[in-house]
Specification:
This protein is an alpha/beta fold. The chain has five helices and twelve strands. The strands form three sheets. A seven-stranded mixed sheet has the order 2-1-3-4-12-11-10, sandwiched between helices. Strands 5-6-9 form a three-stranded mixed sheet. Helix 1 packs across helix 5 (183-189). The longest helix is centred in the N-terminal third of the chain and has 13 residues, at 12-24. 49% of the residues are buried.
């Protein structure tokens, strides 16, 4: 498996470690590549969009020609895990004109809605598809305040969606890469798709 981490900014090494752990649990090996230029995304089986600063990430992926390649990746049905700022960039509406969103997951996101750095918090989450709660780390987390009809909500905090899925895209308000638990990466990249009867 070739896993690309959009590395223009954010938690690159933590995501790389998490995808390697998730792959190892399935007796697979993940070759992780950091993506800062166009031309690499098409070679990747899976993509990770880390947190960071959404306006900066948005500007750089468009400037470097990475944005259309991410769209093509999703249109080809290949998985993406987008966390925190990554979720904002992939949303349909960030409620901020400075963020040129990709519209790959039909949600409206309120940046930093859970507060600034000092309001960061941790919480156990009941996640659809996981047997045990996931210990989630929220840092300047975005709030998903509108969800489209084709989006599945997999976890909430105080009835607010914090983990959503649409097609091959899994988006989280929290930072699953900041724990030793790689189950969210597992869910994004190794979960068997549900077959409709």
């Amino acid at each position: 498996m070739k896993a690309g981490v959009i590395a223009v900014q954010g938690d690159v090494s933590e995501h790389a470690d998490a995808i390697r752990r998730a792959a190892a649990a399935h007796d697979e090996e993940a070759e992780v590549v950091e993506i800062r230029d166009s031309g690499i995304v098409p070679e990747c089986d899976v993509l990770l969009m880390p947190g960071g600063e959404s306006t900066t990430i948005s500007r750089l992926i468009h400037r470097e020609g990475i944005a259309p390649e991410i769209r093509d990746h999703v249109e080809a049905g290949k998985p993406v895990l987008a966390t925190c700022a990554g979720l904002i960039v992939l949303s349909t509406d960030a409620k901020d004109d400075r963020v040129d969103t990709l519209g790959l997951i039909d949600v409206t996101v309120d940046r930093n809605a859970f507060g600034r750095q000092k309001e960061s918090f941790e919480a156990p989450l009941d996640v659809e598809g996981l047997d045990e709660p996931f210990h989630a780390v929220f840092i300047r987390a975005p709030l998903i305040d509108e969800v489209g009809d084709d989006v599945d909500v997999l976890a909430t905090v105080e009835d607010r969606p914090v983990l959503v899925e649409q097609g091959p895209v899994l988006g989280s308000s929290f930072h699953p890469e900041l724990t030793d638990d790689s189950r969210i990466h597992d869910l994004a990249f190794f979960a068997e798709p549900e077959v409709e009867a």
